[in-house]
Write a structure and sequence with these properties.
heterodimer; A: 258 residues; alpha/beta; Rossmann fold; two-stranded antiparallel ribbon; 10 helices; 10 strands; 34% helix; 19% strand; globular; B: 96 residues; mainly alpha; two-stranded antiparallel sheet; 6 helices; 67% helix; binds adenosine-5'-triphosphate; binds magnesium ion
């Protein structure tokens, strides 16, 4: 197998949806695109990926790997939806984030895609994800504070020499007062890969500790995430035909087809 | 950008402030700046604010209410305000 592609999911702001996007892209790549996927929790201070995926109190975590030389293979869990997960420790102890990249090396020829969920803090935690990733996805939402942290994150990533694949807009309400795709792309100089709507189904899925793409696969939010996941591995978005013929998708231009 | 000095002593730094001033200014003061000879507001908008379109629109009238409307449209136009905020955010981050 050729080398894995490692995607880091970043944002310089808490609660924008990094873990939601990371867990759902991973689920979709595994379930819809038959990729061998590993999702890693590199949000070392508030590691909640496990709580999105039903892994609550794992014996070994990424913290053990980055602290006391446990093998990374001991911290890998098989999820019932098919992918693998390396969770973090809910009551974290001190670790060395800078060795993340090197600890991932042995996994590179095992998975098609590795997804790293990261921390919103501008410190070694986030730098570790930047250093370990081949490409970064910056999660944002269409308002001034999030735009500001997005521009900042992109600028820091640039200084660190990291590659940015693009921006994922999450929790869009399709309101006129929101910043537009054009506003955000021109302000950040970065392409928007997908616009994921706000949907209460995401919260109901979280209450079941299941990604929304598995919990409500037909929901618009899940379809948008699936299109994004496909675009990351070079699968073109399928045109969705309705009973009456081709259905026009308003957001057709939004998903990167590359 | 140089300020505009109203002949009553008030200093105006930007279009927002000019709009505020025009809403309370008395006719004598207004016509001191806008008359057959000159249109100081239009000249300042052209030379300092560097908004050619607005400067031309303002130069075509000596009616205070009309100028207020033009300024209001320009200042309170959502799209422009958005661009202004975005530009300020970028400046704040890039100058760190
Ligand atoms: N598209 C969406 N629609 C509705 N709710 C959402 C959506 N995306 C995320 N949420 C909810 O928003 C909350 C924060 O999401 P999430 O935990 O993914 O953010 P985060 O960026 O990982 O946060 P942190 O910075 O704390 O790690 C969660 O309750 C999640 O279910
Ligand atoms: Mg998170």
């Amino acid at each position: 197998m050729s080398d894995s592609k490692i995607f880091g999911i970043i944002a310089l702001k808490g609660g924008v949806g990094k873990t939601t996007i990371a867990s759902n892209i991973g689920t979709s790549l595994s379930k819809d695109f038959q990729k061998k996927v590993l999702i890693i929790d590199a949000n070392f201070s508030t590691p909640h990926l496990g709580l999105h995926l039903g892994i609550v109190n794992p014996k070994y975590t990424l913290h053990h790997v980055l602290n006391d030389n446990h093998s990374i293979f001991e911290a890998i869990y098989q999820h019932e939806l098919g992918f693998h997960v390396i969770p973090g420790k809910l009551s974290p102890f001190k670790i060395d984030p800078t060795i993340l990249r090197e600890r991932l090396e042995p996994l590179r020829n095992i998975y098609d895609v590795i997804i790293i969920d990261s921390s919103p803090s501008l410190n070694e935690e986030m730098y570790a994800t930047m250093a370990a990733s081949d490409e970064l996805l910056v999660v944002s939402s269409p308002d001034y504070p999030t735009l500001s942290s997005t521009i900042h994150a992109i600028s820091v990533a640039g200084q660190k020499g990291a590659n940015i694949r693009g921006i994922v807009i999450n929790r869009a309400y399709k309101k006129k007062f929101e910043l537009s795709k054009k506003d955000i792309e021109s302000a950040s100089g970065t392409k928007i890969l997908a616009i994921i709507p706000h949907d209460v189904k995401v919260l109901s899925a979280l209450s079941k500790m299941t990604p929304v793409v598995a919990h409500s696969p037909k929901q618009d939010v899940s379809v948008k995430i699936k299109d994004l996941a496909g675009s990351l591995v070079g699968v073109k978005k399928k045109r969705r035909a309705s009973f009456f013929g081709k259905k026009k998708d308003k957001d057709q231009d939004i998903v990167d087809e590359a | 950008m140089n300020s505009f000095y109203i002949c009553n002593g008030r200093e105006v730094h930007n279009l927002e402030e000019l709009l505020e001033v025009l809403q309370v200014i008395d006719d004598g003061t207004f016509y001191h700046h806008v008359n057959d000879e000159k249109n100081d507001f239009s000249n300042w908008i052209l030379g300092e604010v560097k908004d050619k379109v607005l400067a031309r629109q303002v130069s075509k009238t000596k009616d205070k209410e009309k100028i207020i409307l033009l300024l209001d449209k320009r200042v309170n136009n959502d799209a422009k305000r958005k661009q202004f905020v975005i530009a300020q955010i970028k400046e704040a981050i890039e100058n760190e």
